[in-house]
Amino acid sequence: MKFLAHIGEPVEEHPVQSPVQNQTTDVGFYFFGGIVILAASGFLVWKILKKRNGRKNISEN
């Protein structure tokens, strides 16, 4: 949370706005990051299962 303060506007100039802005950016960041991680892991699992199923079918046939 602290690293967002010096990336954006100085905290001293906007004591009321900056905490709210940091909270919303944190929530958006974690929400978006969670979606990306879920999508990537789901895609990888699907690819691995597809490869395993393909190998099984080839070996059985």
From TrEMBL:
The chain crosses the membrane at residues 27-49. The keyword Transmembrane applies. Keywords: Membrane, Transmembrane, Transmembrane helix. This is Uncharacterized protein. It comes from Candidatus Niyogibacteria bacterium RIFCSPLOWO2_12_FULL_41_13.
